[in-house]
Design brief:
234 residues, three-stranded parallel sheet, single chain, Rossmann fold, 2 domains, five-stranded parallel sheet
Length: 234
């Protein structure tokens, strides 16, 4: 079997172009990672089988019809269960008990699924005495502005929610460095952030999701249909 990988890296604006080129090559199957990339692929094809991984809300995003019966040409594995937002707030309060306010950091363009788990985050915050505010960003300068703003409040913390923009090395390293410099407690969604020097993370094992996605790739290439393979998650 021939493989033709495509990497978005930091050039998120080219996602749709890359997706179109990939679909035009008429592969037997496409395996894709992240919500933005999956959306781009499915805008280009409703017939080529697609196996996604690291997608939070495939139903709300329109990728599949239901969790128990995908019903379309896509199936795969989620990375975040809907109630996960509440756990991030709990962890922030545990590691920094005096925290009374927190910012939720995300890029709206690359994290359209934020609305999926945001309600659980906002529901948990008042019970823990934390005032949550959204901090949408789209550049390194805006990340710096948010973190420097938190520095003005000794009781402030930060929650970095699932987002391919903040997960990219340049942004990830910037957040970790500034948070350490200004002693701001941060909860991340990705273990890679902790290995790079971040404080704490809570989420799934992304390499494991990719391994599990490979089993679906194998089954589809052997004749199974994506609409018959139940979406799996945590």
């Amino acid at each position: 079997m021939d493989e033709f990988p495509r990497y978005i890296e930091r050039d998120f604006e080219r996602t749709q172009v890359i997706a179109r080129e990939l679909v035009q090559s008429q592969p037997d199957l496409i395996e894709v990672t992240s919500t933005p990339a999956t959306a781009a692929i499915l805008r280009e094809t409703q017939t080529i089988p697609v196996v996604f991984a690291v997608v939070s809300d495939p139903v709300g995003s329109g990728f599949i019809q239901s969790l128990t019966r995908p019903g379309k040409n896509a199936t795969g594995f989620i990375n975040i269960e809907q109630s996960m937002g509440g756990k991030w707030v709990e962890l922030l309060k545990e590691i920094a008990p005096k925290t009374s306010r927190a910012s939720m950091l995300f890029n709206p363009k690359t994290s359209p699924q934020t609305g999926y788990y945001r309600p659980s985050l906002e529901a948990a915050a008042p019970t823990l005495g934390v005032d949550i505010s959204a901090s949408p960003i789209s550049s390194r300068e805006e990340i710096e502005k948010v973190i420097l703003g938190l520095r003005q409040h000794p009781d402030a913390g930060l929650i970095v929610v699932p987002d391919v923009f903040t997960a990219a090395q340049a942004q990830r390293d910037l957040i970790i460095s500034l948070a350490a410099q200004h002693r701001i407690p941060v909860v991340y969604f990705l273990a890679l952030c902790v290995r790079a020097g971040g404080l704490i993370s809570y989420g799934v094992d992304h390499p494991d999701l990719q391994r599990r996605a490979a089993t679906y790739v194998d089954r589809i290439l052997k004749g199974a249909k994506p609409e018959d393979l139940r979406k799996q998650g945590l």
